[in-house]
Amino acid sequence: MRGIEEIAEQVRYNCEISNARFWGIYSICGLLMRLRSLYRFENSLEPWERIDNQKLMSWLDSKERMWRELAGAELRRIEAAGESVEPMDVEAVERLLEEGYCYGAGYSTGMSPSFFLAELRERYRFRGFLVSVAGREVVRDLLASPAMSAEGRIYLRLGVFREYLWEKVEEARLSRKQALLHAFELHGISEEELMMPGEELDAKVRRMAEEESYTLLAHELGEQLQREIPAELFSGATGLLERVLRGVSDMLADTHPEGRLEAIVRRRSLASLAFYVAELTGIRKEMFPELQEAYLRATEGDWSAVHEASRAARERAVRCAVQLREIASQGLSQEELRARLRQMLAEQGINL
To answer: Of 117, 144, 171, at which residue does a domain stop?
Structure first.
């Protein structure tokens, strides 16, 4: 076990470098959620366990001191068994790992580097991509996305997805959002069961994570196959531009013929569709006004409505992508950029 611990410490250092550089890119609310999630992870707390605020504040103080000390520090190469490799070279790092582990690295919001190290549950080929299903995670940073993909690889992080679903449990308990309650009900979790103690409810949440994992895979596949918004367009994008780029890119991924919605339609999974409707927010929701009616028709057995709604949303997203490529190439000031983006969205009937 010494070998994996040695590599884990090096990955952890690079995670903290990324955290130190990029914690400021998140909104206050987003940062607080990510910090609480990272605290739970580092202190082995279950998603439903109460956080001791005094301990949390002490942990935050130590993180703040660490990140100040790491200001300006560079990512380190991963060294083991006499070899030294770049931390973004996933294939090279994985060659250094013991059997039964996987490593992920990529760029996310604000082009922030993100890393994780986890136990490997399963690995297989799908549509030309190498898919790794991560189990218990050993190290991770603030990002902790349920799925990620880059350069022919797709990672499904079921532990992170389980935590995300527990956030949705809390949301359903507080908001009583009908689509969300319906999604849980279709997954065998009644409104009464949502109120069960965590230990009793967790088995059902874990099962839901397994059942919905195919939608994560389909989204990542659609993201890698869509060509309307190239990855380089995100380089240097911040603020409203990055927000719109990511929203349009997500919609292009979800509505791609190999993407999330078509995967749901092929399975005729009303549970997955209800969950998709419930979690659709922001620009993606604004870009998809047809979805609610399509969802209602699907509950009556008419799945062609979902297919047609997906096609309409894709056409809207493609039009936005064409304009985004043009806008991003013009070297506009921030004020001009915001004005052009809002004009573009308004022309597509999107209000933010």
So the answer is: 144
List, as own/partner pairs, every contact residues 235-242 make where C-beta atoms lie below 8 angstroms and the sequence separation is at least 24, other chains included.
235/111, 236/111, 237/328, 238/25, 238/110, 239/334, 239/338, 240/337, 240/338, 240/341, 241/327, 241/328, 241/337, 241/341, 242/109, 242/110
Number of CB atoms found within 10 A of residue 184's CB: 24
With respect to residue 262, please indicate whether it lies within any of the assigned structural domains: yes
User: Do 174 and 139 fall within a single domain?
Assistant: no
Q: Scanning the structure block, which residue is given the tokens 């997906």?
A: 310
Contact status, residue 140 vs residue 116, Cβ threshold 8 Å:
yes
Please tell me the distance from the alpha carbon of residue 83 to that of residue 49, in angstroms, as a whole number.
Answer: 41
pTM assigned to the model: 0.92
Are residue 94 and residue 217 in the same domain, yes or no? Answer: no
pLDDT tens, residue by residue, 191-248: 999 999 999 999 999 999 999 999 999 999 999 999 899 878 887 777 888 889 999 9
Q: What is the DSSP letter of 213?
A: H
259 φ, ψ to 5°?
Answer: -85, -170
